[in-house]
Amino acid sequence: MAATISRTIDARGSFCPGPLMELIRAIKESEVGDTVAVWSADKGSKIDIPKWVEKAGHTLVSVEAKDGYDEIVVTKAR
Amino acid sequence: MQRVVILGGGVGGTLTANLVARKLKARIAKGEAKVTVIDESGSHAYQPGYMYIAMGNERPEKLLRRERSLLDGNVELVIDTIERIDVEGSRVQLRSGDSLHYDQLVIATGSRIVPEAIEHFDTEAYHFYSAAAAAKLRKALDAFTGGKIVIGIAGIPYKCPPAPLEVAFLVESELRERGLRDKTELQFLSPINRAFTIESVSEMATPIFEEKGIDLQLLAGIDSIDAARKVVITDAMEEYPYDLLICVPPHKGAQVLTDSGLAPRSGWVPTDRHTLQVKKMAAPGTKDEDVERYPNIYALGDTTDLPLSKAGSTAHFEAPVVAERVAAAVLRRKPSGKHALYTGKVMCFFEVGDGKGTLLSFDYDHPPKPPKPNQLWHLGKIVFNKTYWQTVPKGRV
A1 pLDDT exceeds 70? Predict the structure, then answer.
């Protein structure tokens, strides 16, 4: 079952490491179980963000290429 | 009378003021233009020198001058605190009760450290982002006899991105000289997935960490400090124990910019990457070309939200562009010449320890290709630091 996105961060105007930093901030402000989507046009995000998510012990729901940007969806696990 | 008001007397504000005054010399002489700098302290600090206080090679009094002594005689200096910027009425409200009308406004209020954003930072962490803090770090290093030193970063962006790496390399050299290296474990916590934000610099710096035996940890931005257990906790919830903690404090832009509706909560002002005009606050996802620019408000240096180093060098290379565009507006002509648009140029030295350094020179389209570290670039940095007062603020380099 697809997770319900509780917050979407549009970081398309932001360069590396901006999208990662925005996601970290959003996860910190979220409750365990919340799902956050980050939109990034920086090609490094789809590599760096999943690595951080794994390190932090959260759940990577999906990484999807959209029209000119990537949508990375993460659920806060702890 | 055309009035140019510049907020902040750091590198960006001082150099812009001097360059505008030079370009408008005839108009100022006729009483048709006026250039004013508003600065809170009236003192100008050479902040890159703070790191050298921490390393025991610089004295705080050498890093401070009166702002008046650096300004062109045609520039008025007002020492006051900015309470509010009224963009609708084109006025700057000051704490003294005065208010100044502007035709052209330049925002160069820089960045500020907010160590209080992290509990126990003041008592547990040492840093080098003020003269006093750098002197305190020096004392701690002098008293250090071995153990674990953790060097990390609490939030991006921060001033002078290479500085924490430089401090790691310089501290390692110092400990070796003092015979303490084999009694010390050194760890560097990078908040991102490599040693440095710029890939080519990261490729240069990563082997230096290895050569020096400094344990480089990635995706380890410092989030909090557990003072009782003497551990830092990262944003990925990992823990790193320390005996001596050196941490870049969180940074923000000036609060007055957020309060005046010119910047989001972070305080970094949305800025056009080429014209350096301030952009109106827009909803996330608005295409950049659709965001309206204030025709007569500019920002430079640490103040902006541009993806560039927050460093004096950035302000140094942006100031001629702001000065050209402001002077052109006053003289009712189009900006022209090589300073009509900013290309993202930044140039700064990078210390690697053992009396060696390298140079980072880049712009929006050309990433840096740092030369192999040698003594020449280290000496270049020392000479630049010593000659700063005669060169940069006065527009001589």
Answer: no
Domain A7-75, CATH 3.20.20.70 — does that match?
no
Residues 6+ apart with CB under 8 A from A73: A3, A5, A35, A36, A37, A60, A61, A62, A63, A64
Work out the pLDDT band at A2, boundaries 50, 70, 90: low
The phi, psi pair for B100, rounded to 5°, reads: -115, 130
- B129: helix, coil or strand? coil
CA distance A1 to chain B (A): 26
Query: What are the residues facing B375 on neighbouring strands?
Result: none
Alpha carbon of B297 to those of B8, B114, B300: distances in Å?
14, 26, 11
Among B150, B159, B83, smallest CA distance to B114 is for B159
Residue B12: name the closest of B254, B316, B256, B253 by CA: B316
One-letter amino acid at B221 equals G
> What is the average per-residue pLDDT within B123-137?
98
pTM over 0.90: yes
According to DSSP, residue B182 is labeled: G
User: What is the set of active-site residues of A?
Assistant: 16
Q: How far is A14 from chain B (nearest CA, A)?
A: 8
Specify the pLDDT at position B287.
83
The mean pLDDT value for B230-242 works out to: 97
ipTM: 0.87
Choose the closest CB to A52 out of B219, B288, B307: B219
Residue B374 lies in a domain: no
The full DSSP string for A26-76 is HHHHSPTT-EEEEEE--TTHHHHHHHHHHHHT-EEEEEEE-SSSEEEEEE-
Nearest CA in chain B to A15: B307
List chain B residues with CB under 8 Å of A23.
Answer: none
- Tell me the shortest Cα–Cα distance from B172 to chain A, in angstroms: 27
Give residue A12's pLDDT.
85
Domain's final residue, options B224, B250, B276: B250
Number of domains within chain B:
2
Domain boundary among the residues B193, B228, B250 is at B250
Whether pLDDT at A3 is above 90: no
Domain of residue B201: give its range. 114-250
Element spanning B388, H or E: helix B375-391
Partner residue opposite B237 with nearest CB, options A20, A21, A56: A56
pLDDT band of A18, cuts 50, 70, 90: confident
Quickly state the pLDDT bin for A11 (edges 50, 70, 90).
confident
